[in-house]
Amino acid sequence: PCGLSFAAFARALGAPGPLQGGLMTLIFGLGTLPALLGIGLGASRLSASHRRASDLIAGMLMIGMAAALLIDAF
To answer: What is this structure's pTM?
Structure first.
């Protein structure tokens, strides 16, 4: 989960009861669903038209993140 999710969960934990907390989390999920679906569908269509380039960029990003984690570990 992202930072926004943690903030929503923390707020739900402070709700007066479990039903209110669950309702707050449900509303948060329903509120973020359209944006997440839009980003996912847009990225999927963009990736499909540029499959080879997006695979190469994704691989380079993963290698870069792994290198950054290794450097931070030492």
So the answer is: 0.57
